[in-house]
Amino acid sequence: MYTIVWIDEDVSILEDLIEPLRDAKDRYSILEIPGFASAKSQLDVILSADIILLDILGPSGSSYLPEERRPGIALLRELREVHHWKKPVICLSVKAKDVADELATYGVTEVLTKPVRPSDVKKAVERALSHAATDESGNLHSSRD
Amino acid sequence: MPGISQRRLKVQDRLLDLFFETTNLPAGLFEIRDGQPKSVVTERCREGFRPFCKIVQSISAGCERCETDTCNRASNALNNQTDEFPSEGLVCCHAGLWNERVPVQVNREIRSVLFYGEMRVKDPEKEKRGLSRLEQTIQELGLDDQQAKDLRDAYRNVPRLTSAEIDRHKEALRAYLEWFHALVDEHDHLEMAADRVTHEIQTRMTALIAKAENLTDKIERLAPQDAVERALGVLHAIEALNTVVQTLTDALGEYHFKTVEIFPLLLKSASIYEEEAGRRGIEIKLECPLKLDAEVSEAHFQHALNNLVHNAVKYSFETVPSGRKRFVLISARVASGIGATESGGSRNATSVDNANHLVVSIENYGVGITEDEIRTGELFQLDARGKLTHGEFRPGSGKGLYFVKRVVDGHHGRIEVRSDLVANEVAPQGKPHRNRFTVYLPLRQRR
Fold first, then answer.
1. What is the DSSP code string of B142-157?
2. I want to staple B114 with a disulfide (CB 3.0 to 4.6 A). Which of A22, A47, B102, B316 is the partner?
């Protein structure tokens, strides 16, 4: 069983996006965090995830804006640089091209540009988990499910 | 057509060139791009570098020192304003030339820092310091006698400016700076507004596509009633998207007034956002007589209602386990001879006779609206951002309430807002407020 943490300020509007993942309830357990204020208080939950689906929010004004106005990027940086959390992160964004390079530096597995289909999200999660299960020498780790 | 970022850079380059051409002082700009300080020096300005600088940069180690110096200056200017590196003033480069540093601020935030000069300063202390740096550079670069002589000669030929001259140029630069301010401000404003609009549309599009794909995948296995419910979900997602588009594009055109029943309009608004509200544990309650009609421009009024209901849902605190059930209350009635003034709370109250008015109220429990936003009507301005909206309650497109106010005005009505602090305790989502938007419309339009 894999734990997916989904952080998105529009969880209540976009719930249908993760329906196929929810349907595979023997394989995935999904925790929703409806925004970055909650994310700050649920860091333990986030760090215990096998994969994170993260809406990077905006990025309004992209690289010209300070980090506090780009909370998705700030959270990502904190996970990677402060907590050295190395598991896969899939980003969702309405305008990913502006921050693609920056996301790559934080080891984001994949960036999905909205509008995106539920089947695309599920495939991206499966790909990321499959890659994560393969170590650098190409050996597969034992399946967790 | 180049994008806004490219246009900004082009104009910015031209301004730097103009400054150089006017003052003969090479200028450069440092700003944060992709999270890193980046220097901007135009080709024109590069050509105008002092022969002294060209000699230093022709030496490999000298070039490295210039780059390191530049990066340090940029980083210090943008991030650390210390006594050694104040945000504004003259700074001495590693080889002994002076540059004036001028920060470009937007909303008290340093966005970029201008450097200009590559000059000597007619001031004994500064001359001494500059020469000391020069000799240190000659020594550290290990220049031979001829190279050292050439560099000292070039240094002597660098223009010397008095403080008064520097200040005069600074005044010229200030005018350029004002352009920069306006430019950067407009750039950010447009980009932010475009991003917020894009986000609103893309989010609703994603919701619609997700519902449609899930329905397509499952329709053969669904019971008829479930299929109908899911199809209704798709319809509501389309309606929500339509409201976003109509609000943003203002494409509804002229008002066409006719007498319509109000209850179905309220019910439609409630239905569109019911699922979204339900996912957050919020119930939408409706209190309206079945037989209540008023003369409205139906499409305009519907989308205005949709905006108000959506806002109420979006900015509501969600029901938490073991907590009280949260709800959004939509109510409508006819008011006869009631004064509009109410006491307490924050509101934009004006006293008018409400006789023969349709009164529609939308109430919620959640993020508040400041007294100032209500008193000044700021919350109804285009691109307004709620001062208390943050975290989970990110501001929307900034066009919803602006649209609502225009529709209410178009109906010769008015809108009243109250936001009462319910408790001083700070929940994770902020301080709870009971908010009420009340729309007063004449039952019959003037002929």
1. T--HHHHHHHHHHHHT
2. B102
Q: A55, A63 in Cβ contact below 8 A?
A: no
Q: How far is CA B380 from CA B190, B369, B377, B386, in A?
A: 19, 12, 6, 10
Nearest to B79 by CA among B87, B89, B91, B88: B87
Number of structural domains chain A divides into? 1
* ipTM surpasses cut 0.90: no
Domain membership flag for residue A62: yes
- Closest Cβ–Cβ partner in A41, A64, A67 for B111: A64
Q: Which domain holds residue A105?
A: 2-132
Nearest to A41 among B198, B390, B428 (CB): B428
Is the CB of A107 inside 8 Å of chain B's CB atoms?
A: no
Q: How far apart are CA B351 and CA B356, in angstroms?
A: 15
What value, to the nearest 5°, has the Cα angle with vertex B233 and ends B429 and B246? Answer: 75
CB B36 within 8 A of CB A103: no
pLDDT of B180 higher than 60:
yes
Q: Indicate whether A120 belongs to any domain.
A: yes
Contacts of B188 in chain A (CB under 8 A): 61, 64
Confidence (pLDDT) at B422: 87
Burial classification of residue B178, based on how many CB atoms lie within 10 Å of its CB (0-12 exposed, 13-18 middle, 19 or more buried): exposed
Interval B308-316 mean pLDDT: 94
- Stronger pLDDT, A4 or B67, i.e. the higher one: A4
Q: Give the integer Cα–Cα distance in Å for B66 and B94.
A: 7
Buried b (16+ CB within 10 A) or exposed e, A66-94: eeebbbbbbbbbbbbeeeebebbbbbbbb
Residue of A nearest to B241 (CA): A13
Determine, for residues B33 and A63 on separate chains, whether the beta-carbon distance falls below 8 Å: yes
pLDDT at B247 over 70: yes
Q: Do the Cβ atoms of B213 and A118 come within 8 Å?
A: yes
